[in-house]
């Protein structure tokens, strides 16, 4: 493994960057093809196979995160696969039952982050001390120590996720517009963090207007990171934040939290419109935004008369037109008028290891 001075800042940056890469790699195929395949698989069986493939890739997110984080540290093959395995162990995605093992989803993304951090730190401490015994000893040590700590910490970290969910759920007791603003604003930040908006929504059973405005908050985050990143990032990376997940910008947001201001303003606007137009969703759809068109499709289902021309127009305005208009306006306002940050502050990390 490469020799370099490892500061706390550099360590955290590498973990966050790898964490984001793994999430994006696992979720973008499902975001692009999941809903389309689900709709067409009844008529064309090949789409059923495609749906299974993208769903399998989504379930492999813990493994992808572990491998991506290890790659950031330039680990050799054995430590790299150890980190990937530990990420899966600490995710909590595997449930052991008397009849077998059940994969329940991606697991807890925050605990994956904690687990791979511990595993990478442990591997860095070991260094090259194992010598030729590394392939024999390291998998056992890292799996037992790193994976064991991940399993121990999982209930506590998961409780943190549920706690955030209960705070968000408390907003539902407010009047529709304040509720919409607060939920949309909350989800616009949560979706860029290691916490899963989908996990929160399903854990607290978020539905109705609360789910719809949560989706709009995710839209605000995706559009905000896309618009801001256009100035300094390659178009492919910006599109990944838009149609995939804005979690790809986790490290950027941690480095410059002030860039969340235009996102919050746009989320407040969208949350207000979501409450006024009664945009709704389900616990499963909340937290997706327009990734894979999950948010808009579910919103149309709850509108009077179904997918009529007027309803489609409302969805297009609220999920596409207003987010982009608001995104460009608030980003211009905060950067050019208020001078809260510079365009370079949206610069994302290079998602590859520099040789």
Overview of the structural elements:
InterPro entries: PTS_EIIC. One of its GO terms (cellular component) is plasma membrane. It is a multi-pass membrane protein. The protein has 355 residues and is mainly alpha-helical. It contains 14 helices and 2 strands. It has helices spanning 8-40, 45-59, 61-72, 77-91, 109-126, 134-170, 176-190, 197-204, 208-229, 235-244, 250-255, 260-276, 294-301, 309-337, and strands at residues 94-97, 100-103. The protein has a two-stranded antiparallel sheet. A hairpin with a 2-residue loop joins strand 1 and strand 2 (100-103). The longest helix has 37 residues, at 134-170. The two termini are 12 Å apart. Mean pLDDT is 88; it is low at 351-355.
Show the helix and strand layout.
Elements: H1 8-40, H2 45-59, H3 61-72, H4 77-91, E1 94-97, E2 100-103, H5 109-126, H6 134-170, H7 176-190, H8 197-204, H9 208-229, H10 235-244, H11 250-255, H12 260-276, H13 294-301, H14 309-337
Antiparallel strand pairs: 1-2
Helix pairs in contact: 1-2, 1-3, 1-10, 3-4, 3-5, 4-5, 4-6, 5-6, 6-8, 7-9, 7-12, 9-10, 9-12, 9-14, 12-14
